[in-house]
Amino acid sequence: MKLSICTISFRHHLYSIDQLAHFAKAQGFQGIELWGVHAKNLADEPHYGADWLRSYGLETSMLSDYLPLEAPIAEMMAETEKLSSLATHWGTKKIRTFVGKKGSADTSEEERKELIARLRILCDYFESKGQDLLVETHPNTVTDNLPSTMQLLEETNHPSLRVNFDVLHIWESGINPIFAMKQLHPYISHFHFKNIASRAQLDVFSPNNVYAASGSREGMVPLFEGAVDYDEFLAAARSMEKIDASLEWFGANVKNVLTKDAQEVKKALQLVRI
């Protein structure tokens, strides 16, 4: 299992992409998950890309963005083409998005059908470019729980539609992440790892809070100190070592937490060389 840092973890920090690559290399990460807005803002400096990142011994594990599935098709496709081109430039075949802006229970049958139709259009395009579209398991989207996610995958029925499996959010939905991982195994192309001190504090990850510079970070804890049992999960995930994972940290002391969490993940996966 290759580990990546997420550039979104540094969204409120004054670090350059050069500094992030140096940090990732120094701490033994294998890749960088590039936030879409960061990739777009670096587009005017084309020397940054896959070749540049390889000079650090790193790869772009995923380009993470939010495709406008509800927008007019021309607008949706313009954004899709832009992200696809950026993904090619950065050498990744994985583009992450959310599906819908409401939870599955609040999404009507007609709304769901329209989202699936849009996903098929996007997947056809990404397939033509040799790329995959990863839908993230996330609250307040159609993939907010296991049954709805499985249904979406079956209804869309496209080889380029894959899953970014967010362990915490699966746990948040009330399903055992190990059970969900086994059910979704054929579709998973990436993991997001993060944790919380208690279920009562999950609101700290709501987008309005987590993306705000002044938002609360109460309850965000290192990976092995929270309510989700990552020792147990990673023991079960050893058979999926070929799937990449990103450490998604939104709290303080970013470099220290990521460094320690990466060391602990490698130990749990028995990947540390002694």
Automatic annotation (TrEMBL):
Keywords for the protein's UniProt record, in alphabetical order: Isomerase
GO molecular function: isomerase activity
Residue ranges of every copy of the Xylose isomerase-like TIM barrel domain listed in the record: 23-270
Tree of life domain: Bacteria
PANTHER family per the UniProt record, alphabetical: HYDROXYPYRUVATE ISOMERASE, XYLOSE ISOMERASE-LIKE TIM BARREL DOMAIN-CONTAINING PROTEIN
Protein name from the UniProt record: Sugar phosphate isomerase/epimerase
